[in-house]
Every structure is written in C-alpha cells, then in structure tokens.
Amino acid sequence: MTLAPLRVTRQRPRQDLAAAERAAADFLAALGIDCDSDGLAETPGRMARAYAELLTPRDFTLTTFDNGEGYDELVLARAIPIRSVCEHHLLPFLGVAHVGYLPGERILGLSKLARVVELFAHGPQVQERLTRQIADWLTVHLSPHGVGVVIEATHLCMTLRGVQAVGATTITSTLLGTLRDDPRSRAEFFALAGIAHA
Ligand SMILES: Nc1nc2c(ncn2[C@@H]2O[C@H](COP(=O)(O)OP(=O)(O)OP(=O)(O)O)[C@@H](O)[C@H]2O)c(=O)[nH]1
Ligand SMILES: [Zn+2]
C-alpha cells in the first residue's frame, strides 16, 4: 500500500483571550450578573477559554491508502459523537454522526472518519452545512463511489430555551454517488447505520 500522509491544518482565527474575557465580563454585567462574588470571579475567563475551545478545531494528520485490495463494500463508522455550536445562538448541539463510504481509489484509517467530523464540528455551524461539508470532504479526498453522512442531534437552543421542545432531535443526511442513486446501496447504508428507512 502506498502511504499518502496529508497534514490537515486549519487557519486558526486570531484569538485574543484577554479581550474575550473582558467582553464576557461586560456581557454578564449587561445582563445584571455581578461577577464580584468568589464563585463568579473567574467565570469570564472560563467563558473565554471554553468558547475558544469549542470554536477551534484540532489539526490532524490524515493518511489515505491506495485501495490496493479493491475493497468495494460499504465502510461505515456508526454513532460518532458530535458536539458543535449553532451559529444562531452559540448554544451547543450534541448527537451522533454515521459516516460511510463505498471505497473507490483511496481508503483511510477508521479513526479519521471521526477526525473529519470533529474538524467541521468546531466553529459556528448549522447541522445541514456540517452534514454536507463532511460528505464533500470525503468525496474530494477519497474519490469514493459513494458517501453517506447522517447526523442526529439535539439543539440546546431548541430544548433549553425558546420553544423548549425537550427530547426533540433533528436528523440531516447527505448521500452522494452510488449511495444516492442506487436504491440497494442506499437501503444498505441506512440499515447498517441503524436508521429506519422506507
Ligand atoms: N436549519 C437550522 N436551523 C437551526 C440550526 N440551529 C438552530 N437553528 C434555528 O435557527 C433559528 C433562528 O431563528 P430566529 O427567529 O432568528 O431566532 P429566535 O428568535 O431565537 O428563534 P427561536 O429559537 O424560535 O426562539 C431557530 O429556528 C433555530 O431553531 C441548524 O443547525 N439548522
Ligand atoms: Zn441555535
């Protein structure tokens, strides 16, 4: 097998944690929350660091391999944990992603499917775009015959506040190539992902 390591790095946004901490303190003060008590004194700093962590993806090395053995069955990673923040409220949405592909020229290490999910989950997102970005990225880097991505998530902006639809989950999917066009492959993908599909 031929190794083709590829270091995946994201252009990190300029981050000024001290400014973010001051802004968090102002934000809380504007909402009438007094940070002078012992318990809250460090909170603006924690908020700044927590959001910096949530919004910044980790770099990783992606190694793809020639599909020398010609493996042509579905490869699927089920229930990859997903955590992101919605770009409308900057509140978390949490759930799982099922990511599969029908190998073409290239295959990749199984852990990298979860890495790709993590790469796009960081930063302000909407679930539909996140789903599509994962599928497109795999299509570009693996030239597979098909790609399927399903995300099932709970949005805290929908459950904790607003409409307070506690327990509601949102499912999004992107199917490309054979997984979109061939009913048998599509049904197999949904069956292996454990999703009821008419
Ligand atoms: N399509 C989509 N919508 C999202 C996502 N995350 C949050 N939203 C929605 O974004 C919308 C923002 O609507 P607005 O009316 O501008 O904001 P809002 O007044 O806070 O809306 P409510 O949540 O209904 O109180 C809401 O309907 C959210 O449920 C997502 O990933 N995809
Ligand atoms: Zn939201």
Written description of the protein model:
This is GTP cyclohydrolase 1. The protein has 198 residues and is α+β, with helices and mostly antiparallel strands. The chain has 2 domains: 1-56, Orthogonal Bundle (GTP Cyclohydrolase I, Chain A, domain 1), CATH 1.10.286.10; 66-193, GTP Cyclohydrolase I, domain 2 (2-Layer Sandwich), CATH 3.30.1130.10. 37% of the residues lie in helices and 30% in strands. The protein has helices at residues 17-30, 43-55, 111-121, 127-142, 156-159, 178-181, 183-193; strands at residues 3-8, 60-66, 75-86, 92-102, 106-108, 124-125, 146-155, 170-177. The strands form 2 sheets. Strands 6-3-4-7-8 form a 5-stranded mixed beta sheet. A 3-stranded antiparallel beta sheet has the order 1-2-5. Helix 1 packs across helix 2 and helix 3 crosses helix 4 (127-142). It binds guanosine-5'-triphosphate and zinc ion. Guanosine-5'-triphosphate (GTP) binds next to helix 4 and helix 5.
